[in-house]
From TrEMBL:
<dbReference type="GO" id="GO:0004070">
    <property type="term" value="F:aspartate carbamoyltransferase activity"/>
</dbReference>
<feature type="domain" description="Aspartate/ornithine carbamoyltransferase carbamoyl-P binding">
    <location>
        <begin position="2"/>
        <end position="146"/>
    </location>
</feature>
<dbReference type="GO" id="GO:0006207">
    <property type="term" value="P:'de novo' pyrimidine nucleobase biosynthetic process"/>
</dbReference>
<feature type="binding site">
    <location>
        <position position="55"/>
    </location>
    <ligand>
        <name>carbamoyl phosphate</name>
    </ligand>
</feature>
<dbReference type="InterPro" id="IPR006130">
    <property type="entry name" value="Asp/Orn_carbamoylTrfase"/>
</dbReference>
<dbReference type="InterPro" id="IPR002082">
    <property type="entry name" value="Asp_carbamoyltransf"/>
</dbReference>
<feature type="binding site">
    <location>
        <position position="177"/>
    </location>
    <ligand>
        <name>L-aspartate</name>
    </ligand>
</feature>
<feature type="binding site">
    <location>
        <position position="134"/>
    </location>
    <ligand>
        <name>carbamoyl phosphate</name>
    </ligand>
</feature>
<comment type="pathway">
    <text>Pyrimidine metabolism; UMP biosynthesis via de novo pathway; (S)-dihydroorotate from bicarbonate: step 2/3.</text>
</comment>
<feature type="domain" description="Aspartate/ornithine carbamoyltransferase Asp/Orn-binding">
    <location>
        <begin position="164"/>
        <end position="315"/>
    </location>
</feature>
<dbReference type="InterPro" id="IPR006131">
    <property type="entry name" value="Asp_carbamoyltransf_Asp/Orn-bd"/>
</dbReference>
<feature type="binding site">
    <location>
        <position position="54"/>
    </location>
    <ligand>
        <name>carbamoyl phosphate</name>
    </ligand>
</feature>
<comment type="function">
    <text>Catalyzes the condensation of carbamoyl phosphate and aspartate to form carbamoyl aspartate and inorganic phosphate, the committed step in the de novo pyrimidine nucleotide biosynthesis pathway.</text>
</comment>
<dbReference type="Pfam" id="PF00185">
    <property type="entry name" value="OTCace"/>
</dbReference>
<keyword id="KW-0808">Transferase</keyword>
<protein>
    <recommendedName>
        <fullName>Aspartate carbamoyltransferase</fullName>
        <ecNumber>2.1.3.2</ecNumber>
    </recommendedName>
</protein>
<comment type="subunit">
    <text>Heterododecamer (2C3:3R2) of six catalytic PyrB chains organized as two trimers (C3), and six regulatory PyrI chains organized as three dimers (R2).</text>
</comment>
Length: 331
């Protein structure tokens, strides 16, 4: 594996290897193990053409915990705003000696273009491209679900997958790179997935995707999902009037207080609520639901650092999909 561009082309073995390595990484950053020397002398560039809080600081924390040097590059305030091309930006990064480029871009396919261009000989990690994919978000979501699934079954997570788990992904599927990356990865890991959305927020051709499609969140809750992933309504990608109305969306597709109580009434004690963030509280999720015991929102953020450490480590250390732990490799 030279790059991490999508979960659609991520094999089962590579997915398990990243999740298992992330388990090993999860102790790093705590009191006893502050840092690993694994990527000392390597340079990771965060190249962000779109806004980000979680993904950017998470990749930065991950690279630093592996002792890499980190350069943060935001298109705002750079020569990109003077019209500099992706090619010239990439060649500038190559001249600086970047070993890995973490790229977020508004254009679907920009990371693949960079990886296949020959402009730069660095590992490319997709941090979200247009409406296409967000593979490290999917990996951290799967990591969070796998831990939950293992706890429920009284087993360890290492080496396990999500066989038998039922996951509902709810909301603005049309514009969501998270929904796409999650779906491909969850299917690879053996989960059953239901996509829930208003008909106007589903993409063309969704009926050919490997999942069930529903227009009703209430009916989907009756099917007893083990995990419900609420998506952000991406108003910035909607170029025409938002339909349904905000009020109708919130009433029919929002995870509100009534639906939170409904999980208890249905006896769904162990169903968890995920959200990739940032959240529109009061639109796709109520504050009570977001802050409830079922919510894994902050756990997802913490897990994201471990997953991104694993991805950087496997791509840059030359360990490939080795099952050796990073601590063993650094020893
Ligand atoms: N989940 C996610 O990608 O969040 P950011 O936009 O804050 O990075």
């Amino acid at each position: 594996m030279k790059h991490l561009l999508s979960t659609l082309d991520l094999s089962y073995q590579d997915a398990i290897s990243i999740l298992d390595t992330a388990e090993a990484m999860s102790a790093v950053g705590e009191r006893e193990v502050k840092k690993l020397p694994a990527l000392r002398g390597r340079t990771v560039v965060n190249l962000f053409f779109e806004d980000s809080t979680r993904t950017r600081i998470s990749f930065e924390a991950a690279a630093k915990r592996l002792s890499a040097d980190v350069i943060n590059f935001s298109a705002k305030g750079s020569s990109v705003s003077k019209g500099e091309s992706l090619k010239d930006t990439a060649q500038t990064l190559a001249a600086i000696g970047a070993d890995a480029v973490v790229i977020r871009h508004g254009a679907s396919g920009a990371p693949a273009r960079l990886a296949g261009s020959g402009w730069i000989d660095a590992a490319v990690l997709n941090a979200g491209d247009g409406t296409h994919e967000h593979p490290t978000q999917a990996l951290l979501d799967a990591f969070t679900m796998r831990r939950h699934w293992a706890r429920l079954h009284g087993t360890g997570s290492q080496g396990t997958d999500l066989s038998g788990m039922h996951v509902a992904i709810v909301g603005d599927i049309l514009h969501s790179r998270v929904a796409r990356s999650d779906l491909w990865l969850l299917k690879t890991l053996g989960a059953d997935v239901t996509l829930v959305a208003p008909p106007t927020l589903l993409p063309f051709g969704v009926e050919t995707w490997p999942c069930t499609v529903s227009y009703s969140l209430d009916e989907t809750l009756e099917t007893r999902p083990d995990a419900v992933m609420m998506l952000r309504v991406q108003a910035e990608r909607m170029h025409s009037a938002f339909f349904p109305t905000v009020r109708e969306y919130s009433r029919r597709w929002g995870f509100d207080d009534v639906r939170l109580d409904r999980l208890d009434a249905l006896g769904l004690e162990d169903t968890i609520l995920l959200h990739p963030g940032p959240m529109n509280r009061g639109l796709e999720i109520s504050s009570r639901a977001a802050d409830s015991r079922r919510s894994t929102v902050l756990e997802q953020v913490s897990n994201g650092v471990s997953v991104r450490m694993a991805a950087l480590y496997l791509l840059l250390s030359g360990e490939g999909t080795s099952q050796r732990t990073p601590q063993e490799a650094s020893a």
